[in-house]
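Continuing the series of single-chain predictions for the mutant panel. This is the parent chain; the variants come on the following pages.
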Amino acid sequence: MTNPKPFIYNCNSHPRKRNILVISAMALGIIYYLILPVILSDYYYSKNFPLAKLISGYADQLDKTSYFTILALYFIFFILGFTSLRTKRHAYTHTKNSGIVFYALISLLVIFQLYSYYALRSYSFKGYAGINWNETNSAKSFLSGLNIIYTTLAVFFYTSNQMKNFRIILLLLLANSVFLLGLGGRMFVLPAVLAFLYIAFLSTRNIILSKKMILIFMAVPAIASTILLIGLLRQGDDINSDGLSFILLAEVFFTWIGAGSFIQYNSLPYFAFPKELIASFLAMIPSVIWPSKLEFISKFSSGFYYDNPVGATSIVYVMLANFGVVGSAFACFILGTILKFLSNGSTKNALRMSYFISILSLMPFMFFRSNSTLFLNCALSQAVIIPSALLIISNKIENLLKAPKGRSLRALRSLDH
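Parent structure:
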């Protein structure tokens, strides 16, 4: 097997790059989803964009000094949590190449992938009159989750230097991403883009100036422009400055409605019991195992009110409803500690590196605009559990098939561990 050490060695040699990635990802989410809507609310209102009056009303009634102060304190607590653990380096463990059994499992996903394309063929590139992302659709949900699964697998194969497998998964990922963009599912495409930007950044020997960093700085605006143009095409609008501004700002302003309305409608507690967060973990249990799951989870309502006319759920609601104003500071500290733990473990092997990069790719956008159930499902089930199961089960079966007859029983027992 080709030695995959250079990539991991580079990460171990420059651990501060992983620190920069984590802190930058969180800062980007805070600025984009929580600060820009307040700063640019007057501009949005002046352009008379959709829901401009509603958004401007929430922004005008906001105590901006307290709001920005609390955001700064939360970010400081996050950094304190992230720096509470020492940065560690690990000896890299080589990863076995995936073989035919893995692709037999992947082929099942591809079959459902093609079937979903067929089921959704009439919605692709039909504008916002097409598929409604606020309504449950099994084919749409499958393709969205599949993009995250493919992203984790692509990162795994790249970091383990299995380039043939990487190219195959990359082609599947690209095909699925194009289809999702046609449906308007850019939030499930952006994590894949970020994951590869992270890899490019971690691969550079010089953080400040290198060919890869120059390419990254060139790629980011190019990718953003492409997504904006696709958004305009889906709406059927002419390409102009106002149209581009709306496509760029609509996501963040529509999401901030949840934050602004939540702050205005509710008396915010200092501490809260995370009922909805607990319900989100319980929601991951398959209904086959727990038939009455939905009836039980419905009792875990937070009791708070907020507006979300386009379906997005602001992180402001998720944090304050589950932990309270003061409790959210400690939650940010714990979140920082968890991400530092993932960062430290990412150089042990390619699988842990794929966990770290995939979960971090969800942070700047999905974490700040999704409810806790959706985010946990993406971060745990689709970025960790399913890719790991595909890789581990396929390797176990291949070991069983290749084992001599005298060792077949031991190989079979190994499937239980």
